[in-house]
Amino acid sequence: MSIEQGLNTRLKSDKQVESQQWFQKLIQTDQYVGDIYSINYETARVIIHDFYREKVGGIPSLSFLIATRVDPSKADIDFKKEDTSFVLLRVMDAAALPQDKEAERIRVETAQRISGETEKHWDDAGSMDLRTKNILGFAGVQCRIIGTFFLEENGHNGEKPLNLKFGSDISNYYPNRGLKVYKPNDKALEHIVNYADPSSILAHTEKYGNTERVKLGFVRYASTNRKYQAIDDVPVYIYPADLLSQKSALFGMTRTGKSNTTKIIAKSVFELRTNENPNDRPLRIGQIIFDPNGEYANENVQDNNSALKNVWQLLPNGVKANEVVTYGITRHPNDPERTLMLLNFFETSNTQIGKSIIDSILSEDSTNYIKQFCQVSFDEPDPNDRSATTRYNRRLLAYRSVLARAGFQVPSSLRASTRGLFNQDLITALQTGRNNNPPTPEYVSAAQVFSNPNPAWGQLANAFEALDKFIRDSSSNYTTFENAYVSRPNGSGDRWADEDLKKIIGIFQYPNGTRKIGKAAEQHSADTTSDYAEDIYNHLVQGKLVIIDQSSGEPELNKSSATRIMTKIFKENQRKFVQGETNISEILVYVEEAHNILPAGNDLDLSDIWVRTAKEGSKYRIGMVYATQEVSSIQKNILKNTANWFISHLNNTDETKELCKYYDFADFEPSIRRAQDKGFLRVKTLSNLFVIPVQVDKFEV
């Protein structure tokens, strides 16, 4: 034998040993339950005897089984052969056997014979002969074929260990060839439920330099979760990297574990900055949680006072509490470090930002004068264009007067100035009032205010209200004044009152106008100068966990502020992407009670920032985790772009039918609708190739 032949023989022998080791990991002969008697590409039927069913601790609905032709005790296993594989099955329901009608007849007749004898059962030795009992102990089980585990050589180096691979189907079947079926024990089940394709792990390594995984909970097949069946504590892990730049959904009724799961996910991502594995690169991921009920930002008895905001305490000594930043519209007695999410609407640099907030709050108001007001924007003109600058300053003065009337506190340092903004001919026209009639006191008062270089803001609001009436008054001198203004020598030919000014001061003619604008006053502070959206984005870039406590805000206010923050995040990361930057910050956005913020399921507006984030966020390094009680409440475009799913109890078929459109959740539809156990979820992540039923761990700090 040549040296080359010897090496090949040695390599073949090593591969056979490896193959046997893999089969012994996943298959234990004492876990045998039965044989497949019917198979196609989608389903398999297994015949199981009561003896083996009892021996392995029962076969719950939706439990995993493994089918194979290979005997794991044999040493000459050739991994290249077609039969050298494991078919993964999920138990669905009973399957009919040809003799079932006869078996049912025998059971009925036997039960009739011992009817009324409470100390006897119809299957007792004295009631049924042993041979008959043995035959009737066989039953059929219908299984869904989930896929095939098989062994494969390393594509780059044949001498490296074999890889366990998984395909989400079967490549072939023989209807007249039997397969032995086994129930995986705890160790085998742990391999199965936590299997991740090597290519997925390699992708995590290449993109993030991190393959950290964290325990989510343990395998739970059914609501009736009997202990002592040797598979009670099989851990289920998830890869936090699966969530980055992806969409993740948490669906379920109230108090079924959505928030607890969110906390575990956020905690696992937060802890990526301090990995136990020295080969993993620490990751600082910016996370932001929109918290409508204040359950993440505040301790509460319901969760044993384990607030997510305290997650920094789990990190090594020396890590500061400012790794977690909380924001809110109002102060909280137990959170003195909270940053108020307020904006100074009178600050010059914030003018358009504040106007955008008001526009967002009023976006669903169909009143004509409100729609016209929302059309006005404050884009600063060219400073060299004197006419445009004057008109801009006049509009700005009117807008600030509207804010003052609407209840926005004016900064003590901000003084109103009318210098150069009001034409003397206009002042005269106001003072003379109406054609051939005595002067109108209201118009005269307005003329006095506009003539004052530094009037009070309340006076200005009254003056602009009068000016609006003056312009609309067909019997006033305004038309005469404007005609003269337009035709004046060396003039621009433009009207004195531009359309934007009219839209602003038009608010005053309606009693509810300033009241509606006043809805945004909660987001205003006369004492701050910075933009909280900018501050929040900077926190996220630094890899901090930001919690937005929205529990004290009005729904319209919460939605508008969340949309503005999301727009800031999206636009900034998009800008970096377009400019070709390579160090774009990974950001993960959590949306609780998502039906209040995300567009409705029947809303087809693809320009919405949340829809754009769902569709385009991945390339801009933005991931989204959204939680709600209704699958149907989420726009289809967002659902179709969701990679990770965490599903607890849903109580009606409308929601479960919608869920059945995705992955293999159809298998779990009856269980999802029936089982109301808190923390009992069905989980599908990017690295997991099939749905796993999981009892999620309790979040604790």
UniProtKB/TrEMBL annotation:
Q: Which Pfam families match?
A: DUF87
Stretches assigned to the Helicase HerA central domain: 232-410
Question: What protein name does the entry list?
Answer: DUF87 domain-containing protein
Q: Which organism is it from?
A: Flectobacillus rivi
